[in-house]
């Protein structure tokens, strides 16, 4: 599928699962903190339970149904409970804090991320819109070596709402000096990135990282390199 690209001057990217390999980096962060805190469980077993729970909490977080603290605690506590392990709130909070600190120490990118950023940056002005925690998103960009590609970063923590809320997209456009008519959003989450963008009249490309079934009319790619055929 092709799209009219002649009027596009600004591209807004999601970060986690779109450019920054959250799954790989998260696994490495857990490996680090499990050693530190002597959590005696196989990493693969933990992650198989944790990952769907984490996605569920992020959905609740986007919908303003849980706080940041509840997300950080709940996803760990629920996972350990399913694995018949029990830790104090103090221990859970310590694990959660160290996990956040360890995340930006591992900075693998999604395959093709730097190549597509180099390609697009020669033709468009690039930006980030992220629901991730403000204390780590900037560190991820800098440590992974892609910070210089982006003119602005709009973070849900700073705006006070999360994608797909209209306000975060409006804020990002205003910060970038961009309009819906000359911009496009690229992200992995159909609900947050695609529907959120379309709700304000912003075109979107879904990087279908999770291999989900989404409506056929949505422009989507299975690999980042395919964006070159669209833009």
From TrEMBL:
- Could you give a GO molecular-function term held by this entry? 5'-nucleotidase activity
| InterPro entries reported for this sequence | HAD-like_sf, HAD-SF_hydro_IA, HAD-SF_hydro_IA_YjjG/PynA, HAD_2, HAD_sf, PGP-like_dom2, Pyrimidine_5'-ntase_YjjG
Alphabetically list the UniProt keywords. Hydrolase
Pfam families associated with the record: HAD_2 (PF13419)
Q: What's the domain of life for this entry?
A: Bacteria
What PANTHER family does this protein map onto?
A: PTHR47478, PYRIMIDINE 5'-NUCLEOTIDASE YJJG
Protein's name according to its UniProt entry: Putative hydrolase of the HAD superfamily
The organism of origin for this protein:
Aquimarina intermedia
């Amino acid at each position: 599928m092709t799209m009219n690209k002649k009027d596009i001057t600004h591209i807004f990217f999601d970060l986690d699962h779109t450019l920054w390999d959250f799954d790989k980096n998260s696994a490495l962060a857990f490996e680090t903190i499990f050693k530190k805190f002597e959590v005696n469980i196989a990493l693969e077993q933990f992650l198989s339970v944790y990952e769907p729970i984490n996605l569920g909490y992020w959905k609740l977080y986007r919908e303003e149904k849980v706080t940041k603290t509840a997300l950080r605690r709940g996803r760990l506590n629920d996972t350990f409970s399913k694995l018949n392990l029990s830790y104090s709130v103090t221990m859970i909070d310590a694990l959660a804090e160290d996990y956040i600190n360890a995340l930006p120490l591992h900075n693998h990118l999604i395959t093709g991320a730097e190549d597509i950023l180099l390609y697009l940056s020669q033709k468009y002005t690039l930006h980030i819109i992220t629901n991730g925690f403000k204390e780590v998103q900037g560190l991820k960009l800098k440590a992974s070596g892609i910070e210089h590609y982006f003119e602005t970063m709009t973070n849900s923590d700073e705006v006070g709402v999360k994608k797909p809320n209209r306000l975060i997209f409006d804020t990002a456009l205003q910060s970038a000096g961009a309009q819906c008519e000359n911009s496009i959003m690229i992200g992995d989450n159909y609900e947050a990135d695609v529907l959120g963008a379309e709700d304000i009249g912003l075109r979107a490309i879904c990087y279908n990282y999770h291999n989900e079934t989404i409506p056929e009319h949505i422009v989507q790619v299975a690999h980042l390199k395919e964006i070159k055929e669209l833009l």
